[in-house]
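Entry type: protein chain
Record version: 2
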Amino acid sequence: MAAGSLPLDGRRLTPARVARIAIGYEPTHLTRRALERNREAVATAHRLLADGIVVYGRNTGVGGLLDDDVASASASEHSRRLLRSHASGTGSLLSAEVARATLVVRANQLGAGGGGIEPRLLQALVGALNAGLAPALHEIGSLGIGDVTSLAEVGLALLGEGRWLGDAPSPPPAPIGAGDAIVLMSSNAATLGEAAVATHRLDMVLRSAEAVAALAFVAARGDPVVLDERVQAARPHPGQGAVARHLRELIGTGLPPVRRQDPLCLRCLPQVHGAVRDAHTDLGGVLAVELNAAGENPLLDARSGEALTSGNFHGAPLTLSLDQVRAAIAQTASQAVQRVSLLLDGRTPGLPPFLAADEPGSSGAMMLEWTAHAALAELRATAAPVVVGSSVVSRGQEDHVSSASQAARQLSRTVERYVTVLAVELVVAIRALRLAGVEPPTDAGREVARIASEELPSDLHDRELSTDLHVAGELLRSGALGSAALGVTPRGRQAVVRPD
């Protein structure tokens, strides 16, 4: 293995590590113990088949054809046929990053030892990652009870019959053994890969979201009494308390109030942002299990030598958690849009209507409110719960689905629209602070304002603001504002690239 190669051990994969390999193209390898677990599972399957034991998908048909027997002499060809027949996806191709994340997750899961796949096929999968390749996988086809269409496409790519994305030459065809197809396909690896990538990106954005809200709070002259520890102790949700502590570090406690009572977009900031924190924490807990789980059916237990019928591929826990996170993001995005409107409506002392710096009739940042509401409308659509629907397929054998893949795809879209909302809030907040000639009263808050001010254009006259939103979005995705808010100096942060 190469020096610095990131290990996959079937036990401790995280969204951050998925991102480092899938997005950052860092080299990886399966640990010795993970490879041993897979070999033990393969040996278990071979013993069962040699003894004439029925093992679903290895010497039988699948789904509604499970009662069909497959002769041992044709078992390897049966695997190849399964991959070909199940590669039935359509729609757009998944991004290379998500396709690579699929490989990362599936390799790690196989290292948990519940499936058992031809070792050379498993090594070919890891080799494709290290070569910088991604299989061509279609978006539409999974129902959240195993990403069979996507993983069939992975299998065909490994066998030399599918397509690879990337500049490197396609790898040589890998061998396929009896039962390898059902093992490879018995997983939600594509869904989990997308969920891991989206969760990693959301983590970077959430680091900055509270910092942006703090700038808007100061610009709107909010009353920091709502952040008081006694208020949080009266309803001690973990996220709420953590957000309030963070905001006190950014805002302080000495801002003089300008209203008898602030609107809810300021007064309930810890409660709403705290709900996102808690939902994000819950999703992290679900992914910690799912990324390292043996979800194959059947589940091979090397200790007892048995093949156990399993439903571990069902994505219900993941779908529920993804639905919760998207709904929480929609709530906090809605609150951010209201802070934008508050800063633009001319009611805050020292701020002109629409933050216009020119003569009467100038529009200033008027249209940013429209952009924020347009993004929020899409966020509401992506926040619709997925888990309430189901389907019945394969002659009724698969009669309940989770739609986890749809929930993960919606999270990817949600994160991007949330960035748009936050970018508007950041641009408006910095503009308001400049016009009012004020700055946050704490060192941490001033550092956040400094970083944002250095990146965002300083011209307050009427002009196009798309460039500002692009710069703000890149700043949010980098996590730099969140790092500054936590007192962390980002290492090697690249300058934001402005569009041509």
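Comment: The longest helix spans residues 404-436.
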